[in-house]
Amino acid sequence: MATFPFLVIVHALAATVWTGGHLVLDLGVLPRALRERSAERIRDFEAIFEPLGLTALAIQVITGLWMGSILLPGFDGLFNPASPIGVLVGTKLLLLGATAALAWHIRAITALAIAFVVVGALIRLGGVLG
Fold first, then answer.
1. How far apart are CA 25 and CA 47, in angstroms?
2. Which is nearest to 101 in space by CA: 109, 113, 90?
3. C-alpha 5, offset from chain centre
4. Which residue has the higher pLDDT, 126 or 87?
5. What's the pTM value of the predicted model, to 2 decimals?
């Protein structure tokens, strides 16, 4: 089997896993967690499926870069309006960067929220004990 068609199939399968995981989370797990007012279901889902989703994302990145290097050797012509493939590959790389930035931002906000809760609890505890 030729390399490029194989990469397209693997890339599409990984995209299916990545997207499917988000759909299950958004349409199945989150509504139930909101109804129950409990984050436990989300944590359980994340503990089980996050490694699978991150693996699928890594496969997408690797196969995408590999296909990009096949279509644009040396990534010459990236964002060149005369090269539709160059614009496509460049746009996908920008979207990948935006996805990574958004994921980092969400993690940073979550860490800050947890820190504020802990600090608030320590302040209240200090008021009770002091």
1. 12
2. 109
3. 25
4. 87
5. 0.74
